[in-house]
Amino acid sequence: xxxxxxxxxxxxxxxxxxxxxxxxxxxxxxxxxxxxxxxxxxxxxxxxxxxxxxxxxxxxxxxxxxxxxxxxxxxxxxxxxxxxxxxxxxxxxxxxxxxxxxxxxxxxxxxxxxxxxxxxxxxxxxxxxxxxxxxxxxxxxxxxxxxxxxxxxxxxxxxxxxxxxxxxxxxxxxxxxxxxxxxxxxxxxxxxxxxxxxxxxxxxxxxxxxxxxxxxxxxxxxxxxxxxxxxxxxxxxxxxxxxxxxxxxxxxxxxxxxxxxxxxxxxxxxxx
Amino acid sequence: xxxxxxxxxxxxxxxxxxxxxxxxxxxxxxxxxxxxxxxxxxxxxxxxxxxxxxxxxxxxxxxxxxxxxxxxxxxxxxxxxxxxxxxxxxxxxxxxxxxxxxxxxxxxxxxxxxxxxxxxxxxxxxxxxxxxxxxxxxxxxxxxxxxxxxxxxxxxxxxxxxxxxxxxxxxxxxxxxxxxxxxxxxxxxxxxxxxxxxxxxxxxxxxxxxxxxxxxxxxxxxxxxxxxxxxxxxxxxxxxxxxxxxxxxxxxxxxxxxxxxxxxxxxxxxxxxxxxxxxxxxxxxxxxxxxxxxxxxxxxxxxxxxxxxxxxxxxxxxxxxxxxxxx
Lengths: 272, 327
Prior knowledge:
Strand content of chain B: 25-35%
Oligomer: heterodimer
Order of helices and strands of chain B: HEEEHEEHEHHHEHEHEEHEHEEHEH
Structural class of chain A: mainly alpha
Number of helices of chain B: 12
Largest sheet of chain B: 6 strands, mixed
Strand content of chain A: under 5%
Structural class of chain B: alpha/beta
Number of helices of chain A: 14
Number of strands of chain A: 0
Distance between the termini of chain B: 39 Å
Shape of chain B: globular
Radius of gyration of chain B: 23 Å
């Protein structure tokens, strides 16, 4: 027993609490390792998106008119952009809350907001993984980049920015859901955002009362940006607006979503 | 006995008039803490004993700064926990049902992660994890994923995770609930060796025996209030008398045995007809048992079993409150 006491006596209490960055990177590191070592998580995160991709590419695609652009080229940039809405981030957050992981974090001398920042960084990486899987499967079923390399790089950067914003939306949904099971259900509540947008079908094909919503919501702005950047300037006519018009809106939406849900989530998490 | 006791004369935990309500006027209020007064002396293990819903976890959460009491004062290691929760978090370690370990990480990775979050540098975190692994005897399994651990190993790791920051106060929320008896005894050993090393411990438990085994100071709470405090021995002589329990072979002998036991008992005997059992709390355990054996055999009544046992938590509650432990 004295030997054991000696073991612990060798630990000097840290003189300072961890910095925000140490906290965020430590928690992000744990969460990323959790993904990588739990294959189900990696697969589930990609499988819904891939399933929709294949169904729309091969089942509905033939019936959807996208003018001079091949449907596969119309579809893949959209799916790459919205993979954050298919992510299971909310479920992961609800699990951390249910299992007591968050309680342990909140009992530690960490800057509490930094725990969620770490979660967001890891979830952004997971969403980016979903985007990557979508692109690979997309290429396998016929998708090609028609714009320049610069456009593709900017599109990818935009996707990651939007992913970061959506990771905070997922964190918020996870925090308010109360249980992992509820979080799974709440996760579906974002589906109208995906479908009532230009992601799968042109907005003009929708009833006129639905068009104003579809035209102005964040997913359409995001999808339009990525399409315009990836497919090249020729498609601007088809999309109805200039590349800049879309990109500015997509960025504005991303910042708005990120600030809104980061604030709400942090307030909920740090409150005693 | 304990170095931290010498350095720090202030009580480990000092709560006065602590209240916490859940729910709403409409749906019905739950008074999880209803004016709790509790002092956990420094240099001791304090056990909070009570049934489910007594307010044990709510109190631990308040001490761990996971929730803010509605009213009252709470000092942890002399620090005002309501005004300065950040400072409290630097001196406590939390383990048990309110905290968790990550199944996808190895035991060592879990400890390093928590050590980093206590504020250790990367190399100090490694050293702290190493020392804790030795303490909780998990060195051999340190590099296996926790999802492959047994329930007992997980609890030991959970306990270890609360130690990597070298906390002055350890908060253990029902550390052995759900463990089999053997594993429970192993975990008790780990907790005892920490206490010998000078860590102050506050633990909650539903088991009288656990409080008896580990604690110097026991606080019994119910409905968010303290209903008794003292050393385990004091409480047992005050409330939890030993129980003589007899099981007869023929149900028809039950009332005859109850009549024999009545004069030996501290209270009226309790009859359980379907189980053909009579139990009676007695003041002088072994003498009462000997007398019961003699008197029953004189009458020639056939028994399945006769014995002396410790009171259950339910019986302690019965004695202290006049009502059974609420579900």
